[in-house]
Amino acid sequence: MQYKVEVVDKPGIFDAIGQGVKKDILxxxxxxxxEVKFIQVYTLEGNLTEKQVVEICSELLTDKVSxxxxxxxxxxxxxKTQRQFIIEVAYNPGVMDPVEASVLKGIQDLGxxxxxxxxxxKKYILTGSLSSLQLKTISEKLLYxxxxxxxxxxxxxQADIQHQPGYRFNLITVDLLKATDAGLLExxxxxxxxxxxxxxxxxxxxxxxxxxxxxxxxxxxxxQTWSEHCYHKTxxxxxxxxxxxxxxxxxxxxxxxxxxxTIMKVTNELNKSWCVSVFKxxxxxxxxxxxxxxxxxxETHNHPSALExxxxxxxxxxxxxxxxxxxxxxxxxxxxxxxxxFAPPDLAFNKVPSGSLHPKRVxxxxxxxxxDYGNKMGIPTVNGxxxxxxxxxxxxLVYCGTVGIxxxxxxxxxxxxxxxxxxLGGRTGRDGIHGATFSSGxxxxxxxxxxxxxxQIGNPIQEKKVLDTILQAxxxxxxxxxxxxxxxxxxxxxxEMAAELGAKVYLDRVPLKYSGLSYMEIWISESQERMxxxxxxxxxxxxxxxxxxxxxxxxxxxxxxxxxxxxxxYEETKVCDLDxxxxxxxxxxxxxxAVYSQVKHKEPRIPQKKNLTPDLLKLLAHYDICSKEWVIxxxxxxVQGGSIIKPLAGIVNDGPSDASVTKPLxxxxxxxxxxxxxxxxxxxxxxxxxxxxxxxEALRQxxxxxxxxxxxxxxxxxxxxxxxxxxxxxxxxxxxYGCYEAAKEYGVPFISGKDSLYNEFSVHGKSTSIPGxxxxxxxxxxxxxxxxxxxxxxxxxxLIYVVGKTYDELGGSHYYDLYGAVGNQVxxxxxxxxxxxxxxxxxxxxxxLVKAMHDCSDGGLGVALAEMVFSGGLGAExxxxxxxxxxxxxxxxxxxxxxxxxxxxxxxxxKNKEEFEKTLKGLDFGLAGCITGGNSFKIxxxxxxxxxxxxxxxxxxxxxxxxxx
Amino acid sequence: MIKPKVCxxxxxxxxxxxxxxxxxxxxxxxxxxxHINSLVNRQRMLSDFHILALPGGFSYGDDIASGKIFANxxxxxxxxxxxQFIAEGKLIIGICNGFQILVxxxxxxxxxxxxxxxxxxxxxxxxxxxxxxxxxxxxxxxxTKGLKKIIYLPVAHGEGKFVTQDKTVLNSLxxxxxxxxxxxxxKGKSSGYPDNPxxxxxxxxxxxxxxxxxxxxxxxxxxxxxxxxxxxxxELKSKIEGDGLQIFRNGVKYVxxxx
Lengths: 965, 259
Prior knowledge:
The complex is a heterodimer of chains A (965) and B (259).
Chain A: E1 2-9, H1 16-27, E2 33-46, H2 50-61, E3 67-71, H3 74-77, E4 84-91, H4 100-109, E5 115-128, H5 132-143, E6 149-151, H6 181-190, H7 197-210, H8 216-225, H9 228-231, H10 233-236, E7 238-245, E8 253-256, H11 258-261, H12 263-270, E9 275-277, E10 284-287, E11 292-300, H13 302-307, H14 309-325, E12 332-342, H15 359-377, E13 381-388, E14 397-407, E15 420-425, H16 460-475, E16 481-484, H17 489-497, E17 503-506, H18 519-524, E18 530-535, H19 540-548, E19 554-560, E20 565-570, E21 573-579, H20 580-585, E22 591-597, H21 613-620, H22 629-632, E23 643-645, E24 648-649, E25 655-656, E26 660-662, E27 671-678, H23 680-683, H24 687-704, E28 712-719, H25 726-746, E29 750-756, E30 760-763, E31 766-769, E32 773-782, E33 799-803, E34 806-807, H26 814-818, H27 831-846, E35 850-855, H28 860-871, E36 875-879, E37 885-886, H29 892-897, E38 904-908, H30 913-919, E39 925-932, E40 936-940, E41 946-951, H31 952-960
Parallel strand pairs in A: 7-22, 12-13, 17-20, 28-29, 34-37, 36-40
Antiparallel strand pairs in A: 1-2, 1-3, 2-5, 4-5, 4-6, 7-8, 9-10, 10-11, 11-14, 12-14, 15-18, 15-19, 16-18, 17-19, 20-21, 23-26, 24-25, 26-27, 27-32, 28-32, 30-31, 33-38, 33-39, 35-38, 36-39, 40-41
Helix pairs in contact in A: 6-7, 12-25, 14-15, 15-16, 21-31, 24-25, 28-31
Chain B: E1 5-10, H1 17-26, E2 30-35, H2 36-40, E3 51-54, H3 68-77, H4 79-87, E4 91-95, H5 97-104, E5 118-121, E6 129-137, E7 151-157, E8 161-164, H6 167-175, E9 179-184, E10 204-208, E11 214-217, H7 245-258
Helix pairs in contact in B: 3-5
């Protein structure tokens, strides 16, 4: 029996959800909707008495003070008045309904046991006159995503996922031995294996030696292990690099492993004693204090977020949180960092590539997804950035990072022969089968009735329960190794843990969400919120008890062996028997071609203007630069009680901070600084200098909050186009060498990284790559958080210094972007000068001389000054003639808006003038002006005449308005 | 003198337990973090403690409504031991999700039959918001004695709009001095959004029961126990203590003096 319960706000209660939807409908350009009413729907399935239904509704599903309920009957459902439209959105069968488990628990707590399943839906009643096309637009553009949801047809009977026919075992082998080259490619394509001909031949040869055909599961295991996503073929393979024109020239190269030749090389050469574990574990580990280490990992989740922004970002952040949890013996996540790239949110609908969602919806969904998971895990989101470019319209970038802390003696793991393989946390379903390889065009809700496939929704509370219990089991020394189930599911997790040993796994013992999964599906499913442990048999009872105490499922599914083989069973049958050496090292070496040739862009002709106030206002309103407060406020950045330099700072807490500082321990003043550098615009001119600038930016943010370069580690995340195209790979090579050079010069080792390639999409039949985008994330330890510096102006009468020299480096600047140009003079990095500046400013901060400091980045000096002043609610008078400037052009606009590296604006109390100048002796700096009371913001040009004059409140308004949704 | 014992009660989705324990420890109490299962299964007894703290978080994911499922567990599985706990003169504090739980279980504003007559519903802005707020203490609550005229704490919630079933309930809260905290501006005056971050009736941010010993609030005092956490800590050069610590001290002091 089905009972459909509808819960609605009482009359007089403000319907915040309905109001939000009404506003979003207006954004679509539809203004005829007078009212939107939101109704929460629960469909209960089971045998219940009428009294029980009433009890469930009144005691559990309804807030008596603010809501009413009805148990709907068909007659009631049709009682709508004219000009009312009902849209009810429910999850597709097979998609996890994250609320179901909680409702079932709540019903059991009432002592009612007859409910078998619960499904939730959202119902919107729209009042107003609407055409059927408008109704469709509202549904599709706003209210549901067909990949995971559908609009309920009131007459249709809902599909019943609980009662699927069971799975009957059937061993499937693939005929590889006799396959021709064409046959091999066909097998790869049909099976969505994404293996090339060389690889397929290698696999065929392996099975020829075994004198048998592979089981489908074996082929899938190899495809997963050798995938770009898991093996990083591009970064580990050979590259034949040719350079046609570039400064500085790298010259033609034959590269044996790009990662080893650049990123890992610098780490090896620097050989820092405080690097505890690099490029080995799920996250890079560095020393924090005498007792603890910290680890950091940044991941991307681009393709899933393009299709289902909420679910994609949700599982993206959920996945990266599991990385620290699976590092060493498990670290406690203490902060998140999120960086996104979208197309502009006001992109015309006709410019959105067909099959893609509008960027505003993508952005809102991604932010909600991160908010939901991060907040519910109780991890503060303290750092981030959002950038915009039209070429992200079909393929947004979603970077998620997590830092964890763990005791020093829990920083390493070792799987032992004889240990049991234990899977714990969420159950396994069909979620995310072939997750990394699906294509959006082929996915519709009709074709994917059950296997809603690659698109997933996370369940943060499941992961929180796993985290709470893992830390208890870790501290009781109950297991010997741990890793997370991410891409490739059990196949990847068990395969990696057993790589040096061997393993036997009994797939029929894996707990399932619903019946009907084949042995192969169980093995490669990417269901969320699962971890794998290696457990000595003597501890198994105690371990299972620790998890059971808090309602977490832990199940023994096999054991680690010394056979150097991966052996899988389903019931009595062996369904996989692979040599570990072949699986992990058998992939044929590839050589890819790469070509780099510098592109010559048009130099814009911007007339010199006396009044630069309008340009400054426009720059402040640039989507890259403007306030992201709407996003940041939705993230809990205070949970865990250790947030010191917060993402928003100022006299009313709303200015843009540089790096974040977090104090992770209650009994210590030590802090962790997190920053990021990202600027794909420089990459349009030269990815080499883009990389150097990204590193410079991440480091100068650390300096700006009072940190030093003493112990800084960095992470690389490359998001690029198709590396099989020589030009894309050429720019990737150049960026990698830029990373090497800058990291080496600054003495900052890479400790972890990730690449996401193949970020391309089709517009009007032509394939477009995203801008090659490098994210550099930096982490540093600070001895005393009480010495932190914030970015906003503190006091009228203070002196304003500009430190670091400005050049006419407008290439890739936001100023040029205002004029639709890229230019060619990309900002370069002077390593020896900038190291001196960083070190001197750190000394000044340590001495307590600095009242405020802000780094000059997007929008240059003009934007940095404005942000600093309006965040402090003050005014300023600045003289450009006093600013260090090396230039032939000597233009006010160039000096104000050039994005040269290694520059800072610093506020100093008058009484510290001499001491500060002494500390910076011999470096490029200028006393550029002072902070004034009131709100008048004045900049005198090189000729002494005013070139900017504005009320700082007006500047702030311009900066806040664009994303104040 | 006894060392007050605090039970910090957790469930699936609780996430401010550790900082709440840190605050109570700093205030001189002994803390134990207990999963609700251990009380329900009677492995542990509530009567072993002097203070029950319900920390913030997203118990059961805020599914159905924030705090609802946890509140029902209290109502249907632990009601007797809770009534006895209160009758013995002991203390309860619920912060954020803990406040939602206290309200939805009927422990606040408090009645013998644990009937819910107030609620915390979706913010008027329709979204989760994290920001610092000014609060004006009032009322007869034992937890808020000796606070400054205005204190500064962070809020972080999506469902914090305080509403009462009707005018009578609101009037009785006022009459009995059960309104403990009201959102205000920097000068202590009542003002609109964002000083009142959620649209709460009468700017109500926290209430207590008639005894003044059971207390719930949306803001997070445990996130401001050190001055360094203040977003403009440069203003407070010499201070090392945050505004929130006094609340935990009051609880500990009350136990020492009265139990």
